[in-house]
């Protein structure tokens, strides 16, 4: 699979999902299960992505500079720092720890 | 076009949200080119896929699993984007049934445009909120994606030093505002633990998809649900 295939299929599915919502009857929303599952799907996938991005290197678990970096981001999110500030801080912490040789 | 006071409020929040979201676009653009996508692929994701969480998912999964993880990247992105379909159902009466307006509205149906629309009480203001936010976010997000991709391209390897941490922090930032309810918090914790356990046992991408199973089980049984208490 090429990168373009991935980009175009993912994009087409995104638009199809959005457009389908305009074609189906609004009755679907009266049943709260669909809404709840869609919301929880978002939460679960994002949480799994946080875990994988913080710990995985290919198919191995490695604890490295990412953990302190993500903890710094978590503190910043908790005190309602803007998204870009927390994200840049995380990148800076990881880069600094690696430059100093304190973490892999 | 003259706005009523309520429409003006909706218009202003739409512009403000558009500006705030534009800053995410910069991190997406930089992360995307550093993950192996070129500038054009990065821009197509922002122009056509146009849903932040799904875009970060494509880039994140490809960054760790490479092209071999293509289908899991697509599936993660699609599952994350299912909520947009629900938003569309909710926005349909606001948008109307015009044949040319619906596909454009569909493209602009995301967290932000839906949230600003639902925040207004009158339908006319909801309409202004939806379109203003959708268009403002679309323009801002795409401009900053392009800028981020250009900068990321120039930074090259230097960017790689803290990049994996940037991706993790970005997902955490997208997750954070969704954790207010107990049910969501438990689903997040279980999905994260399950994904961690699966990392050494499954190909890259699968640990993320396993989160979908957790969401389905809790969502369908409505386990841990608490009735909203109005105090």
Automatic annotation (TrEMBL), chain A:
Keyword hit for Transmembrane: yes
Keywords: Membrane, Transmembrane, Transmembrane helix
Record field: transmembrane: 37-57, 69-97
InterPro entries: Brnchd-chn_aa_trnsp_AzlD
Name the record gives this protein: Unannotated protein
Organism: freshwater metagenome
Automatic annotation (TrEMBL), chain B:
Transport found in the keyword field: yes
Keyword annotations: Cell membrane, Membrane, Transmembrane, Transmembrane helix, Transport
Pfam families: AzlC (PF03591)
Primary localisation category: membrane
InterPro entries found in the cross-reference section: Brnchd-chn_aa_trnsp_permease
Membrane-crossing segments per the record: 15-37, 57-82, 128-152, 158-177, 184-202, 208-225
GO annotations of cellular component type: plasma membrane
Location in or out of the cell: Cell membrane
Membrane topology value: Multi-pass membrane protein
GO BP terms, alphabetized: L-valine transmembrane transport
Keyword flag Manganese: no
Family listed: Belongs to the AzlC family.
Protein name from the UniProt record: Unannotated protein
Native species: freshwater metagenome
Phylogenetic placement of the source organism: unclassified sequences, metagenomes, ecological metagenomes
């Amino acid at each position: 699979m090429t990168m373009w295939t991935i980009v175009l299929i993912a994009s087409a599915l995104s638009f199809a999902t959005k457009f389908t919502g305009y074609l189906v009857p609004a009755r679907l929303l009266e049943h709260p299960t669909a809404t709840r599952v869609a919301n929880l799907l978002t939460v679960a996938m994002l949480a799994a992505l946080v875990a994988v991005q913080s710990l995985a290197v290919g198919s191995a678990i490695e604890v490295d500079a990412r953990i302190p970096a993500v903890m710094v981001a978590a503190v910043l999110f908790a005190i309602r720092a803007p998204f870009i500030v927390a994200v840049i801080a995380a990148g800076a912490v990881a880069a600094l720890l690696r430059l100093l040789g304190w973490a892999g | 076009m003259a706005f009523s006071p309520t429409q003006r409020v909706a218009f202003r929040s739409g512009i403000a949200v558009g500006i705030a979201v534009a800053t995410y676009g910069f991190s997406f653009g930089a992360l995307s080119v550093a993950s192996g996508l070129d500038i054009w692929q990065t821009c197509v994701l922002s122009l056509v896929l146009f849903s932040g969480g799904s875009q970060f998912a494509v880039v994140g999964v490809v960054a760790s699993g490479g092209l071999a993880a293509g289908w899991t990247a697509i599936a993660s992105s699609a599952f994350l984007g299912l909520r947009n379909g629900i938003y569309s159902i909710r926005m349909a009466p606001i948008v109307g049934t015009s044949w040319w307006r619906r596909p454009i509205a569909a493209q602009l149906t995301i967290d932000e445009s839906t949230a600003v629309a639902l925040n207004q009480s009158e339908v006319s203001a909801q309409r202004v909120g939806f379109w203003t936010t959708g268009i403002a976010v679309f323009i801002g997000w795409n401009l900053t994606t392009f800028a981020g991709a250009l900068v990321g391209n120039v930074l090259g390897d230097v960017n790689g030093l803290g990049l994996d941490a940037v991706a993790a922090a970005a997902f955490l930032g997208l997750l954070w505002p969704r954790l207010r309810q107990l049910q969501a918090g438990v689903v997040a914790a279980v999905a994260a633990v399950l994904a961690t356990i699966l990392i050494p046992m499954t190909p890259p991408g699968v640990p993320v998809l396993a989160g979908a199973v957790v969401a389905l089980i809790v969502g369908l049984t409505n386990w841990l649900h608490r009735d909203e208490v109005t105090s």
